[in-house]
């Protein structure tokens, strides 16, 4: 019996040793920013602490502290990209007796990831090291009080520079859609900073022209413009159809929107995306109000009843021409075609007013006539621009 108990205790002791071994082997992944010295090609993870007795090729024994100081040095060097060469200054002696001449020029290599033991809590070189525990071997380099001077084109330029390297200043060329793109060398290059050159480019290359309400261009990006206007157009088209069909709810919606948007535009700040969106919505709903058989009120809901008019609505005609000028006859060719046009396009509107559902009202007949190229203004009514020939 004693022998059995002794064996059991021995097995438990061995199992405990195995578990303790597993705990010791557990590690954290720690990233080091590493560089190659331009003077002699040594790969280092810089420390901002002074080494013992002035040692230059030194790094803190605690890898967590060392990695943090390497990160601090990287940030002080303006967070360069891999392959960038920086010139800096330091109060450390970079050519101490018995050490290689490290110099003050470094090329950034990127990240070396190291497996650092969790236990003991403060690892030392006795249980970890860059040679066996890191994806890229590196040594130490002590640069106390480092200060960034500039970015050089390469190591030879940095080490042989007669004057300090300056920070890279990006140059710009005109790009598509009024954007500016970095191009070294570029047309816009007179400014002392990259931002000056970009501003100069935007002032000369930016797209100019009337605001396109469908997209917000050229003043606003699609993200800035959003989908609010597009959703409004869908709602307005539906309410316009309700009003044409004699429903008072359609007239009330349109008139209320005219009134509320008129007030909103008056209170908005010109030149802002909010102002432009509200103005686009007001223009669109005003065109609908001009087209529907409603009695328009400037102070509240309106009721059904013929509002009068003279020929095809001129605002609607101009909206169709603007859409055609910006999007063609049927919309984006990647999505639409003459036989399957975008509903808001020229061909889409012709399909709606002339075919499906067709010219069910006098106003729709006027629109169909214009879209078909057969429109003649009634006596006393103004002329309007001719419709484009889209072949649909």
Topology, pairings included?
Elements: H1 2-25, E1 27-37, E2 43-47, H2 63-76, E3 85-89, E4 105-117, H3 130-133, E5 139-142, E6 147-152, H4 155-159, E7 172-174, E8 180-182, H5 194-205, H6 222-225, H7 228-244, H8 248-267, H9 273-291, E9 294-295, E10 303-304, H10 314-327, H11 346-355, H12 362-372
Parallel strand pairs: 2-5
Antiparallel strand pairs: 1-2, 1-4, 3-4, 3-6, 7-8, 9-10
Helix pairs in contact: 7-8, 7-9, 8-9, 11-12
Description of the molecule:
- By secondary structure, this protein is of the alpha+beta class.
- The longest helix has 24 residues, at 2-25.
- The strands form three sheets. A six-stranded mixed β-sheet has the order 5-2-1-4-3-6. Strands 7-8 form a two-stranded antiparallel sheet.
- Strand 7 and strand 8 form a beta hairpin.
- It contains twelve helices and ten strands.
Features of the shown structure:
elongated, 6-stranded mixed sheet, 392 residues, 10 strands, 4 domains, alpha+beta
Main sheet characteristics: 6 strands, mixed
What is the number of E strands? 10
Count up the domains: 4
| Integer average pLDDT | 79
Roughly how much helix do the residues carry, as a percent range? 25-40%
Shape: elongated
Give the oligomeric state of the chains in this entry, treating copies of one chain as homo and distinct chains as hetero. Answer: single chain
Order of strands in the sheet with the most strands? 5-2-1-4-3-6
Work out the radius of gyration.
Answer: 37 Å
- Count of helical stretches: 12
Query: Which blocks of ≥5 consecutive residues have pLDDT under 50?
Result: 18-24, 296-301, 303-309
